[in-house]
Each structure stands twice: as structure tokens, then as C-alpha cells.
Write a structure and sequence with these properties.
It is elongated and about 100 Å long. A hairpin with a 5-residue loop joins strand 8 and strand 9. The strands form 5 sheets. The protein has a 17-stranded mixed β-sheet that branches. Strands 1, 4, 5, 6, 7, 8, 9, 10, 11 and 12 form a 10-stranded mixed β-sheet that branches. Strands 15-18-21-24-27-29-31-34-37 form a 9-stranded parallel β-sheet, with no helix packed on it. The protein is built from 9 helices and 41 strands. It is an alpha/beta fold. The chain folds into 2 domains: 5-234, Alpha-Beta Complex (Spore Coat Polysaccharide Biosynthesis Protein SpsA, Chain A); 265-458, 3 Solenoid (UDP N-Acetylglucosamine Acyltransferase, domain 1), CATH 2.160.10.10.
Amino acid sequence: MSEPIHVLILAAGLGTRMKSDLAKVRHRLGGRTLLAHVLRSAAALDPASIIVVVGHQAEAVESDARAALADTPLAGRLRFALQAEQRGTGHAVMSARNEFAGADGSLLVLYGDVPLVRPSTLQRLTDAHTKGGHSATLLTTELDDPHGYGRIIRDAHGQFLRIVEEKDCSPDERAINEINPGFYCFRIAELTAALDRLTTANAQGEYYLTDAPELIARDGGGIGTLLHRDAAELNGINTRAELAAAWKRLRREILDRLMNEGVTIEDPDSTYIDDGVEIGRDTVIHPQVIIEGRSRIGAGCEIHSWSRLVNADIGDECRVLNGCVIVDSRLEGKNSAGPYAHLRMGANLAPEAVVGNFVEVKKSRLGRRTKSMHLTYLGDATLGDRVNIGAGTVTCNYDGKRKHETHIEDDVKIGSDTMLVAPVRVGRGSVSGAGSVIIEDVPPDSLVAGVPARVKKKLKQKAEGAQ
């Protein structure tokens, strides 16, 4: 059995170059925080524990981390360590010592601002470490312009000697293009011993974690390196421009994956889909569509241009026409919405329900085959099956202090420009005349009209003696 792997993620910094009041690891990329991306990749290794070093905005960063692993087996293995002041990467690891010292196995050290690193890359690193029997293993990469990175220094036989940070490099060392992107796997016992010997004797006056492999090697420990060719995957995010570049790469990876799974994306260059969005096969995404959050789209759907879906649950064979905004809402299947419809706050369309041009549905449910085709507001309403809503209808749900509900039962027809002043119920099979203002409950099978609306006649009379 392979040795246990523990994960340590350094996430304490402010990120001054972001020019932001938000801690750097809390910035979002493709619908997740930077830290959430790293946590997700680390979790794929099924580690014995995940320790996050927090500092700036510690409470909020902890909350983000817990949310990222909620409802996963890793939630119970997540721990935190506080780095009260930032005195270098070595100091950050020292701050977490109590969380891993004495544990069996090895510690994989990551950074919370490197969101594109793949689980497969981390697996390769830990495999190289354990199979090689190394005391420490470093991931390295090569850059044409290595400015700003620590250089990997090797002996005449190509064996690792040390890492030298940019500000401490000699001219010859600066010419080296093999760099340290900051991913390490250490045997815990040997790392703990090395931490006791770190000093601040460097240009930055900080405790460098990069000194630990050299100290371990001096004690006779074996140091392994693993060259990773895709340097961009290991990039940290330090500026808004770097955040945008990372999103461009991640977005293309998301779109390519979806297309490989059977989704048609007509214009990938203008389509924005968050990481984690699910889309069924044979769905067509037209140009200039944005799909965000925890959205799920079924099979055989069409999402037309200029629509934005956020945390939307779209069933199979639905059509979202041009310019729709659907937020925190559900289409159960074979629905049509739009063009220019707005569904929000838990709006729900039962199968085959339709909302059309400039219809807003807020916190309401439309029953099976119910239709509202034009220029209507349905808020805090429950509509039954086979209801038809005429153009210009409004559920007047707010009395200036509280919201109230409207209930429209099955097979009702609401005439154009009807105002339903909630709380109110319209009974099954009833009809309202155009321009009606309904301020009290309407009995079943009734025709109402007027301001205020009054019952004009019964539409059905039960046969005498009928049960």
C-alpha cells in the first residue's frame, strides 16, 4: 500500500498586485474561487488530510474552502492553520507544523493561487516521489524568460543541488531556464527537521521553503525532480491580466470537453461557460451565450444567442430563445422560454409550459402546458395546468409592506391586461375579461370582468342532482 499523502495549500497572502480589497485566493475564475480550483485538484488524490494556511481575510477564506469541499468525503479531512504575519513560504509551512508534524507519509505543498494545475499533474508528482523513494521531490518546468522565478541548480552530473531565488541569483544562475514553480512533495519527518534550520539570510529577509530541499540533501536525503513541459498550467495568478489569461485557457478547456461529449457550440470564441456546468448531448449552444454557476442543461436543448443562465436547471428538449435571463430557476422539460424572458428566484416551468416575449417569472410555478406568451409579470404565483395568460397580465404581489401569493387553478384563461391583486385565487375553469382588476377570489367556472372584477355568469352549471 502506498504511503499516506497529506496536502498543504498556502493561501494566506493578500495579493497586492491584484489591487483589490479581496484576498487573492478569493478571486473567481470560471465560477469558482482560485482556492476552490486548487482544492478540487488536490481532492482528486483522495489525501489523508488537506491543510489550508490562511492569513488575510482568514475567516472568509476558510468559509470558501469549506464550501468548495462541502458534500464530499474530504470535508471531514479539511483543517486550517493561521499565518498571522507573512514572512515567506517557509514561515507559512512552519505555521502549519502542528497540523502535520508526526503524521506518517508525505506532504504535498501547493499554492492557492495556481488554479489550472490538473489532478493528473499532482498524481504524477506524488507517484514519482513515492516510487522513487525520495525524501523530497520537486516539480520543475522550463521558461524562455525565467525572470522572477527561483532557478534549479544542478551539478555536473545533472543532480539537484539547490534552488536559488531570483534576487539571490548570480549572473550565471539567472541564465538558467529551469525554474521552480513551487510544487513539492516532502517526507514529513525530514521536512519537519529541515524547517528547524531555515534562516532569513537572503535578499528578502524571509524564510524560504526553497531552502528545505537543499538542507534535506545535505543530510543525505534523496531529492527527486520531475520536469513538467506545460509551464502555463503551473502559472500563479498575481494580476488581473494573469487572471484573464487563465480564464481564456480554462474556458477553452471547458468548451473542448463539452464538444467532445456531444454538445454543439457554434462559436467557442463568443461562448462563456463556467467550470462545473453540465450539458447533455445534442444540445446546441448558439453564439454569445453565457452559462454560469451550477447550471445543468439536459439533452437535445437549444440555447440561443445573448442568453445568460445562472444556476439554471434546464430539462431535456428545451428551447431558450434569444436574450433570456434565467437565474436560480428550473425548466422541467420540453419548455420554451423567450425571446427576452426573465426567470428568477426559483421560477419553475412544468413540462411543456411556455413563457414568451418579455415575460418575467419570479418565485412562481407554471403547470403543465400553461402558457404566458407576451408582456407579463408573474410573481409569487402558482399556476395550474393548461392555464393561458393574456398579454399585459400582472400579479400585483406587493402591498407596500409584504409580498402576497396568487393562485390560478387548472384550465383558467386570463384576459389581456388583467391585474390580479394578491392575495387572490382564481378557481378552476374560470375566465377573466380583458382589463379586469381581480381583488377577490373567483369561484370555479366563472366569467369575471370589470374594475373591480365581478362574476358576470357561470360557465358551467352542474346538472341537478349530480354528484
